[in-house]
Design brief:
The complex is a heterotetramer of chains A (169), B (104), C (381) and D (417).
Chain B lengths: L4 H21 L3 H25 L6 H32 L13
Helix pairs in contact in B: 1-2, 2-3
Chain C lengths: L8 E5 L11 E7 L2 E8 L7 H4 L9 H7 L4 H16 L5 H29 L5 H21 L8 E2 L2 E2 L7 H24 L2 H7 L7 H6 L5 H5 L6 H4 L12 E3 L5 H25 L31 E9 L2 E9 L7 E5 L1 H5 L3 H5 L4 H11 L3 H5 L1
Antiparallel strand pairs in C: 1-2, 2-3, 4-5, 7-8, 8-9
Helix pairs in contact in C: 2-3, 3-4, 4-5, 4-11, 4-14, 5-6, 6-11, 11-14
Chain D lengths: L1 H8 L5 H10 L4 H38 L15 H11 L10 H17 L18 H22 L3 H32 L4 H10 L3 H4 L1 H14 L24 H26 L14 H22 L5 H32 L4 H26 L13 E3 L18
Helix pairs in contact in D: 2-3, 3-4, 3-12, 4-11, 5-6, 5-11, 6-7, 7-10, 7-13, 10-11, 11-12, 13-14
The chains are: A mainly alpha (169), B mainly alpha (104), C alpha+beta (381), D mainly alpha (417).
Chain lengths: 169, 104, 381, 417
């Protein structure tokens, strides 16, 4: 991981991701917050590319940037006007303290431990490897995940469907 | 100046703490969901960086696990946003503080 | 339990809009995509013709009648002139009757071609069908130009006959047109009639049942689209319609698709009438000799500008491409009509529009408005 | 002199060689690679801008011919400068921002829509090994980029603070999302056959065996329809359905911002056409002709012919209503494409399991797919009640007598519905 291109890419994308994450915190309008969130998703997709995880990078772009952002935007459109100022609740200070604490612990753990660094460079291509792993080693979780998705879709439709009794009044 | 595991884990840690802050501090229910999504992504990043750097039997399992977390987070986002719309329909607001009753 | 109330969303398909065929405003109150209320705002093109006509003599009023329904000027002229002739008990010579019928039928083809083309354009077919149909309409307008010098506002008919006879080369050119129009109509029919998307966009939309149609005194292709076989050319024949054989096209479902199909079938029937008329038209004068008419040089006798019809009232109605157009004239003996009222089919066909559009979507409302085929000049008068 | 030699031998346009060539001129390793990619990007950008301008003119002339009129012939010789005039007009127009509009997003939306569509062209193999980004997940990248402009459309509609724009953007998003699923399933079939998502592998597979269009008619049909929706073209140009809500999500955009949308739509068209060519019509190969003619000219030729289908459909087809379009996607195309993926999976399995030689397998697969495609298409349409009852096309009744009522609505037409 030492070619200059990858290092430059890492720093640019890292700053972009963390910057837009802070943007989500600071944005005054919740739509701006979602736009910053999408920017951090894209930054992450770039980071995955530097980690030579090409399938996950593209999947991240397709699912997070394409689908989940739309879910968030539609939820914002369907909910009332007055809560769109992305304001903080009364839990502000304790949340800040907790977040800083958790962050410090994670960074300390990351820097301090001796990771068993393998001396191989990135995978050539991961898509087919993931496919094989999904279908033989992780076949059961794969099925459970599909059931979970089905349940989630049906659940959300049932939740949001206008109640039948509303039609007849 | 080579880039290695610590850098990625620091980025993931920072992202996670920002996500945690957003989840806890934001007033609107949608803000909380944005925070949760950020935490999911931070975790994915650490998985991928471990899969890339750390010695392991089959490194691809990191990627497979991320696929599963993406599906779980997508399912969770869909259900949570359906809840947000339902909350608005029932309570007329999506402010988190106003949802103090366990049963409405 | 507060329901997910979405406040009503009012959309103006406003006076200036690509598909309202003129200055006409439809205000739709929407709940999401469905229309809950539709009300029309008219009068943007009101030129108060009926009041103006009261200061002009009978002959000077003829140009007004082309400008109400500017897409079928011939039928406007014919209706007015029939009313005045009924007032003055004038007997129109045979050739003039045939000429009037031929011109009216040509005008019907031109107007229906325009209506069907614009309807296809409303469903989104990017002006291609309209352009094809304009090509044929041009040929008919050339025939009009040859006959009376004008293309759109023709002013061709006079009280007691027609302004001038057709030049000798008119009939061969008309016959040539009648030969190649069926090929064009066949082309339109398979281009549009069985087109999946047009069927999907117009089948079962804007349905008007026969009793609703009759209750709103709708007339013309809209009435026939709802299954009621009513055509003034058969019911109360004027000009030479009783001497030619033709059918009345009737729909069965009363939806937008059937009106569109009825108009296409009517164009073919007009062709049938024209073929017979061009054969059977007798020779002879084209204008009646009116009592105190001054004789113009060149033997043409034109009703004098200041002719005074007897006191009384008359109503004459004919089948214009949009429905039953009628002129009601009250005369007080002076050279100008005391009261000059136009029964305009577009205006009356619009009344059930709200009934048809409520419950459907914006896209349907536009298509339904297209199927009513209004001309705003006639709506607002 | 090296460059001239390369030009003559006809490989000058191979980016890999270009990088080595620049290296020979003494540039350090990375810089050569960066420079080559830069040159390639500029070439693609130039091609995109020029072919969009050319196609604005071609489209207006072709649609005009379909409507037996002339099309632009005033500006410049035979109207050739018309697109330039349009572009200048858009540049000079004042780009107003509506009051109450969300300024940053209002300005950002056209760019977010335009840039990703341009990025799609990096993954398509234009020639021998003439591909800017030889991604191993090429097909998925194509879908991801198609997914990116969904939120951008929302931003455009939302930030222009206009009732019509909001309605237009909601409609477009609903369409884009439902047809994205159809695209995913339709593109799955070629990937199943080639068992790799790399565009170069797909093209070489089609060179060795057969063009995938012959063995995958249903998938191609679904993808072309989904492509038409992706670029808001004729059967589905609900986004800016002039005859209904005036101009959809780009109502409030004037000047160069609208230019971005307009150009973005064309580029999406080229991207879909390029995808169809690479995945179904054998990319830059033409039965061995590519030895003489440079690969990219064959690729462009095919791309423009496929794009011509979209121009043709725009000139003739009327527009489907938004709910019919959605119904068509969910009730008709989705089951068909799922069945298609299952069939293809079974075929590939049979082919791989008992190692049939490609000579036996492919013709059989082609026939089976074609027959099943037709049967499924017609049968499923019949099952959904197409062409029966309320949806039958019927002529008018001709009658002589007056006053009779012939009103017998086919089942399903409720009055005033």
């Amino acid at each position: 991981m030492d070619e200059t291109g990858v290092v430059i890419a890492f720093w640019v994308l890292a700053i972009m991701t963390i910057g837009s994450a802070l943007g989500v915190v600071g944005a005054r309008n919740i739509i701006h917050a979602v736009v910053f969130l999408v920017a951090s998703f894209l930054g992450l997709a770039g980071l995955y590319v530097t980690l030579s995880a090409d399938f996950i990078a593209v999947a991240q772009m397709l699912i997070y940037v394409g689908a989940i952002s739309i879910l968030l935007l539609f939820a914002i459109v369907l909910t009332p006007q007055e809560n769109r100022n992305n304001s903080e609740g009364f839990l502000r200070l304790p949340a800040l303290a907790l977040a800083l604490l958790v962050g410090a612990v994670m960074i300390f753990a990351a820097v301090d431990t001796e990771w068993a660094i393998a001396d191989r460079d990135g995978f050539e291509e991961t898509a087919s490897a993931i496919g094989d792993a999904l279908l033989d080693k992780y076949a059961l979780p794969f099925e459970i995940a599909s059931v979970l998705l089905l349940v989630a879709v049906i659940g959300s439709i049932v939740l949001v469907r206008p109640e039948p009794m509303e039609e007849d009044e | 100046m080579s880039v290695d595991l610590e850098h990625y884990l620091i980025v993931s840690g920072l992202l996670f703490s920002i996500g945690l802050y957003v989840t806890l501090a934001k007033q609107s229910f949608i803000g909380v969901l944005i925070g949760i999504e950020m935490m999911f992504n931070a975790v994915n990043l650490s998985f991928i960086s471990f899969a890339r750097f750390v010695e392991s039997g089959d490194p691809i399992s990191g990627h497979v696990f991320v696929v599963f977390t993406i599906t779980v987070s997508a399912a969770e986002a869909a259900t949570a946003l359906a809840l947000a719309v339902l909350l608005y329909r029932v309570k007329g607001t999506v402010e988190v503080e106003r949802m103090d009753l366990l049963k409405w | 339990m507060t329901s997910l109330q979405s406040e009503p969303f009012v959309i103006n398909i406003g006076p200036q809009h690509p598909s309202t065929h003129g200055v006409f405003r439809l205000r739709l109150t929407m709940d999401g995509e469905k229309i809950t209320e539709a009300d029309m705002v008219m009068g943007y093109l009101h030129r108060s013709m009926e009041k103006l006509a009261e200061e002009r003599t009978y002959t000077q009023n003829i140009p007004f009648t082309d400008r109400t329904d500017y897409l079928s000027a011939m039928t406007g002229n014919l209706a007015y002139v029939l009313a005045v002739e009924r007032l003055m008990e004038v007997e129109v010579p045979e050739r003039a009757k045939w000429l009037r019928m031929i011109m009216a039928e040509l005008q019907r083809i031109a107007s229906h071609a325009m209506a069907v083309g614009i309807f296809a354009n409303d469903t989104g077919a990017w002006q291609t069908p309209v352009m094809h149909m304009f090509r044929d309409r041009e040929k008919i307008l050339d025939l009009f130009e040859m006959a009376c010098g004008a293309r759109l506002t023709l002013n061709y008919m006079r009280i007691g006959g027609v302004s001038r006879d057709i030049p000798p080369e008119w009939i061969p050119q008309a016959k040539k047109l009648l030969k190649d129009l069926p090929k064009k109509f066949a082309e339109y029919e398979d281009l549009l009639l069985t087109n999946e998307i047009i069927v999907a966009r117009s089948r079962g939309i804007g349905v008007l049942t026969p009793d609703q149609a009759i209750a709103h005194s709708v007339s013309g292709p809209m009435l026939r689209g709802s299954g009621v076989a009513w055509d003034i050319r058969k019911a109360d024949p004027y000009a030479a319609y009783d001497k030619v054989d033709f059918d009345v096209a009737v729909g069965t479902n009363g939806d937008v698709y059937d009106r569109f199909v009825v108009r296409m079938a009517e164009m073919r029937q007009s062709l049938r009438i024209l073929e017979q008329a061009l054969e059977m038209m007798p020779e002879g004068p084209v204008h009646a000799r009116l009592g105190a008419a001054t004789v113009q040089p060149g033997g043409q006798s034109i009703a004098p500008l200041a002719y005074r019809p007897p006191v009384g009232e008359a109503y004459a109605r004919i089948e214009s491409p949009r429905g039953e157009i009628g002129y009601y004239i009250v005369s007080d003996g002076s050279p100008a009509p005391f009261r000059f009222h136009i029964r305009s089919p577009s205006f009356i066909n619009l009344t059930p529009l709200a009934l048809m559009t409520v419950g459907s979507t914006v896209a349907d409302a536009v298509v339904i408005l297209g199927s009513v085929d209004i001309v705003v000049g006639e709506v607002d008068r | 002199m090296g460059l001239l030699a390369m030009l003559l031998e006809g490989e000058w346009y191979d980016f890999g060689d270009l990088a080595e060539q620049i290296e020979d001129w003494g540039a350090p390793d990375e810089a050569a690679y960066v420079l080559a990619t830069l040159v390639a990007t500029v070439v693609i950008l130039l091609w995109a801008v020029l072919s969009v301008l050319a196609f604005i003119w071609i489209e207006r002339r072709v649609v005009a011919l379909m409507q037996n009129r002339k099309g632009p012939n005033r500006v410049g010789p035979a109207g050739l400068l018309q697109p330039v005039a349009d572009a200048l007009k858009l540049l000079m127009k004042e780009a107003i921002t509506t009051a109450g509009a969300d300024r940053i997003l209002f300005w950002a939306a056209p760019i977010i829509i335009f840039v990703p569509t341009l990025a799609i062209f990096a993954i398509f193999p234009w020639g021998e090994n003439m591909v800017l980004a030889d991604l191993n997940v090429g097909v998925l990248f194509l879908l991801a980029i198609a997914g990116i402009n969904t939120p951008a459309v929302f931003l455009a509609g939302w930030s222009s603070n206009n009732k019509y724009a909001l309605l237009g953007s909601m409609r477009t998003i609903a369409m884009l999302i439902s047809y994205e699923i159809i695209q995913v399933l339709a593109l799955l079939a070629p990937v199943l056959f080639v068992s790799s998502m790399r565009m170069a592998d797909i093209v070489s597979w089609q060179e060795d065996y057969v063009w995938i269009v012959l063995i995958q008619p249903l998938g191609l049909l679904a993808y072309i329809i989904a492509g038409a929706v992706e670029m808001n073209r004729s059967p589905a140009d609900n986004a800016e359905a002039e005859s209904e809500i005036v101009a959809g999500y780009h109502t409030e955009y004037g000047g160069i911002k609208f230019g971005f949308f307009y150009q973005g739509e064309y580029l999406a068209g080229f991207a879909i056409a390029a995808a169809v060519v690479t995945l179904y019509f054998g990319g830059w190969t033409l039965f061995g002709l590519e030895e003489w003619i440079p690969g990219w000219s064959i690729f462009l030729g095919k791309l423009y012919t496929i794009f011509f289908i979209y121009i043709w459909s725009r000139g003739t087809l009327p527009r489907l209503r938004i709910d019919q379009l959605m119904g068509f996607a969910w009730k008709f195309l989705l089951p068909l494409t799922i069945a298609n993926v299952l069939i293809v999976g079974a075929e590939v399995l049979i082919w791989r399991e008992n190692e049939l030689s490609s000579w036996e397998a492919l013709p059989a697969i082609a026939v089976v797919n074609l027959a099943l495609g037709v049967v499924l298409f017609a049968g499923w349409a019949r099952f959904l009640g197409h062409g029966k009852g309320t949806q039958a096309a019927s002529g008018a009744i001709l009658t002589q007598e007056i006053g009779t009522v012939h009103f017998k609505p086919a089942v399903g037409t409720e009055a005033g519905s």
